[in-house]
Design a protein that fits this description.
Shape: elongated
Family: Belongs to the glycosyltransferase 8 family.
Oligomer: single chain
Largest sheet: 7 strands, mixed
Main location: Golgi
Helix content: 40-55%
Protein name: Hexosyltransferase
GO molecular function: polygalacturonate 4-alpha-galacturonosyltransferase activity
Radius of gyration: 34 Å
Keywords: Cell wall biogenesis/degradation, Glycosyltransferase, Golgi apparatus, Transferase
Number of helices: 25
Length: about 575
């Protein structure tokens, strides 16, 4: 009896030893097929991939075309595409086919059937059967195509050299898929024909990958892990880009410490003055229509100083210049104090608070956009649509954005024939020039209220430096037209598209040399054009007074700011 028990123990111990030794023998045999360097790299990458807790194997999605034509509204009974489906489907058809709604958000109702043929224990024949079924296209088709390409490349790199003949089909499909996708990053980047072709090629690619999996099963796990690692790195890069974009926007919307300090210092000095000492000279000029009136709407002291100083420096007749600086009551003391201690020579500066306009508090429809973006909610940005109310005694006014610099005398602008139009502006519809805007990039022409009233090919133009004929404005009652668009719910499109609508067919296009844009976001603005321009504009996020300003253009602005001023030095403001 004891002999029987002894034999049983020996048998069990033999089985346990075999279960431990067999995997080691198998791995050793596989490693012997690799070079010493290859073995070391293989083990390092394998251990690193297995130790990463956050690495999850990505799901491979198998696609088939589910009645592709019916997705855009095919009428099987009448054998034609219905008018309703064309209107709904052809507006961004690629987005709708891929499960996106009109706002570009993922349609939560889209059925996504996922197949991870790389998962352990998954039967490859199941994936082959799923290929025969109709599975809807998911919203991340381009990304899934790239995932397939990554797996294919991993197989092509890892598979033994002797297997080249078996991999020819996979290599050919990879080249075709790369040519098809190209530089596309979103589903909407593919045309309808490319979407149709992609569906077919993805089925062939899936079948080819399945064949390779069966031929080289030992490569499969490694290929999947390499693909997972690549996906993780791509996600990290994407996250870093999003973070960088957020920080740039945050920097653009936040007042620098030095400018905040300057405002506080000037405000304290202003309230230390007696009331009679707070008045700026030549106030009798502000209502004289024969003078050249320039308006600036801003809450930034340095920005206002640069606009006024550059205009005066370039003018031939400084005594004719009248500057109207409109700001909020909080910033009025600082801006007023700046021009009290830095008088504009023979020119006139008048600083006014918008809080004195009682009618503005009633016409605040632009605040209903529920947006935190200052472009949509700032009263200063929308004051441009109330110029006749702000300047009832004037016939003409030039409106500057506070991020411009004047480099030439503007007298000729005041003598320009406006041909009965209300606004003079530089066009932005010339392709290849900066900026280039198409009106349909900002306005929805599928909306009948827009499509029936406006020409989709109309030339867009820019704010920043504009001449306004206030007499023609009053004659056409354009402020009421602007209010009508606000009541139609168009406040969220921004002030520029609202301007295109309000002044439609009332715009006189100026020569491009009057106003060069792009210095706040583009590094491709021609320096010769900048030097010849009458006005240059730092439109964009990278304003010249910010640390994120573009260095190559900053000197055009800083030369009009007196950095030797003791207030600027006290607040550590430097060029």
């Amino acid at each position: 009896m004891s002999k029987i028990r002894r034999c049983q123990r020996i048998f069990i111990l033999s089985l346990l030893s075999l279960s431990v030794v067999a995997p080691l023998v198998f791995v050793s045999h596989r490693l012997n097929l690799l070079t010493p360097l290859g073995r070391r790299e293989f083990l390092e990458e394998l251990y690193r991939a297995e130790d990463a807790e956050e690495l999850d194997e990505p799901n491979q999605v198998v696609y088939t075309e589910k009645d592709f034509v019916s997705t855009i509204g095919y009428d099987s009974e009448n054998n034609h595409v219905s008018k309703e489906s064309r209107n709904a489907g052809y507006r961004g058809a690629a987005l709708e086919i891929n499960g996106f709604n009109q706002h570009g958000k993922e349609d939560q109702g889209t059925q996504q059937n996922e197949l991870s043929f790389m998962s352990q224990g998954r039967n490859i024949h199941d994936s082959q059967r799923l290929l025969e079924k109709n599975i809807e296209v998911t919203t991340k088709k381009v990304q899934e195509i790239k995932d397939q390409l990554n797996l294919a490349k991993a197989y092509l790199k890892i598979a033994p050299p002797s297997s080249n003949l078996r991999l020819r089909d996979l290599e050919r499909l990879s080249r075709e898929m790369e040519l098809l996708v190209g530089e596309a990053t979103h589903d909407s980047d593919l045309s309808m024909s490319e979407v149709h072709s992609a569906l077919q090629k993805m089925r062939h690619m899936e079948a080819s990958l399945s064949k390779v999996y069966r031929a080289f099963p030992d490569c499969s796990n490694m290929a999947a892990k390499l693909n997972t690692m690549k996906r993780q790195v791509e996600e990290q890069v994407r996250s870093q880009r999003h973070q960088a974009t957020y920080l740039v926007h945050l920097a653009a919307r936040t007042a620098p410490k030095g400018i905040h300090c300057l405002s506080m210092q000037l405000t304290a000095e202003y309230f230390a003055l007696r009331p009679e000492e707070r008045k700026l000279p030549n106030e009798n000029n502000i209502h004289r229509p024969e003078l050249y009136h320039y308006a600036v709407f801003s809450d930034n002291v340095l920005a206002c100083a640069a606009v006024v100083n550059s205009t005066i420096s370039s003018a031939k007749e400084q005594r004719k210049l009248v500057f109207h600086v409109l700001t909020k009551s909080l910033n009025l003391p600082a801006i007023s104090m700046w021009f009290l201690i830095n008088p504009p020579g023979n020119a006139t500066v008048h600083v006014q608070s918008i809080d004195n306009f009682e009618w503005l508090s009633k016409d605040n429809s632009f605040l209903e956009s529920n947006s935190s973006d200052p472009r949509y909610t700032s009263e200063l940005n929308y004051l441009r649509f109330y110029l006749p109310d702000i300047f009832p005694a004037l016939n003409k006014v030039v409106l500057f954005d506070h991020d411009v610099v004047v480099q030439q005398d503007l007298s000729a602008l005041w003598n320009m024939d406006m041909k009965g139009n209300v606004i003079g502006a530089v066009g932005t519809c010339q392709e290849g020039k900066i900026p280039f805007h198409r009106i349909d990039m900002f306005l929805n022409f599928s909306d009948p209220l827009i499509g029936k009233r406006f020409d989709i090919n109309a030339c867009s133009w820019a704010f920043g430096m504009n001449l306004f004929d206030l007499q023609q404005w009053r004659r056409h009652n354009l402020t009421a037209v602007y209010h009508n668009y606000l009541q139609m719910g168009l406040s969220s499109v921004g002030s520029l598209p609202l301007g295109w609508l309000t002044f439609y067919n009332k715009t006189e296009l100026l020569n491009r040399q009057w106003h060069i844009l792009g210095l706040g976001y583009s590094s491709d603005v021609d320096r010769n054009e900048i030097e010849r321009a009458a006005v240059i504009h730092y439109d964009g996020l990278r304003k010249p007074w910010l640390d994120i300003a573009m260095g190559r253009y900053k000197s055009f602005w800083t030369k009009y700011v007196n950095y030797d001023n003791h207030f600027l030095q006290r607040c550590n403001l430097q060029a």
